[in-house]
Amino acid sequence: MSLVMPTHRRRPENQQDRVRLKTLLDQARHRLEGLDLERGVAEEIIDNLEKAAGQVDFEHVAEGLVLLAAPGGESHAFVLPRVSVAERVIIDDTFATRDLVAMFESTWKYWVLVLSEQPTRLWSGDGERLEEVANALFPLEFEDSLPDERGTTPTQPKQFRIQDDRRMQFFRDVERHLTEVVRQDDRPIIVLGVPRYLTYFGDLADGPVARSVIGTVEGSYDTASAPELAQLVGPVLEAEHRRVQERAVAELDGARSAKLYAGGLEETWELASQARIAHLIVEEGFFAPARAHDGRLYPADGTEGDFVNDAVDDLIEATLNGDGRVTFVPDGALAAEDRIAAVLRF
Under DSSP, is residue 12 helix (H, G, I), strand (E, B) or coil? Predict the structure, then answer.
């Protein structure tokens, strides 16, 4: 059994989420009791679903919630940040995983570099979680008060030049250290700092670092905490996610030219079973109950084949099982493609 519902981050809306979840649990119980199941199976599934619900802290939810339960003690709860979900309760042979796929597709690991002279810090990001890096490369501090070579105090203009040279060398060191980090673990980079530091870094960044930067945030965040930084970089991640979606839709034009394009649910369904889909692009709100028989889809209100709660969910799973990628795009983005399309391997 899969239970999916939208949730809210803040009061008072998130207080209503508790009430709505209780209603959905009652709905799930009612539906299970109406099925011809072995004795005790319905009660076991509901117990496991309620166990999953008990793991949810409604003071720390996001945009969506997924609960999964099955016989044998299987029970899972997932909080989904920045994912739009539709409320539903699904009883099937497999879990409804499309919303989890959407979360993982839009939730990446990334680096957050906070430029400062005292010190420059690097944070490892995974979704909305940030952890400061503490190793031989970061944090990195700037030393700005060293005597000159003769041990005398330089004149003020010369001191400014010395400090400026040292500052440039410091940011070269920052770029060099970050290059080593990216060489070991290549991720998108978001850079925070005052405009002057961002300019220094932008002028010096080269190669893999320059290619990995997806955005900047202006300001002094020397002492910002992990939750504060996560809030600051959120809009940058969202903008990058939109660019990823736009690139996915644009990829379909090249696929058409190369005759590696498939559009519509029926065509992509058949090709997924042949592991021919390299990249599936689907609208976020596209759900399609249907019937399946011998690798083909039929109308849900027909009699041929077995009923499928959501053919799109099964198609996504088949694509992933065939080592394909899946990208969700906003509703309406694939209107000409009947809401779903694919780039084929051959």
Answer: coil
Give 85-135 pLDDT, tens digit per residue.
999 999 998 999 999 999 998 888 999 999 998 899 999 999 999 999 999
pTM metric for this prediction: 0.86
Distance CA 84, CA 27 (A): 22
Are 277 and 271 within 8 A, CB to CB?
A: yes
CB atoms within 10 A of CB 303: 7
How far apart are alpha carbons 110 and 112 in whole angstroms? 7
> Mean pLDDT of all residues in the chain?
93
Q: How many CB atoms lie within 10 A of CB 128?
A: 17
Q: Cα angle vertex 242, ends 241, 247, to 5°? A: 95
- In angstroms, the Cα distances linking 154 to 159, 163, 257 are 6, 11, 67
Q: Where are the beta strands (DSSP E) in the chain?
A: 2-6, 64-70, 74-80, 88-90, 109-114, 121-126, 129-132, 189-193, 213-218, 261-263, 277-283, 290-293, 296-299, 306-308, 325-329, 340-344
**Reduced to 3 states, what is the DSSP secondary structure of residue 127?**
coil
With contact defined as beta carbons under 8 Å apart, do 221 and 305 qualify?
Answer: no
Residue 251, φ and ψ in degrees, nearest 5: -60, -25
Q: pLDDT of 181-206, one tens digit each? A: 999 999 999 999 999 999 999 999 99
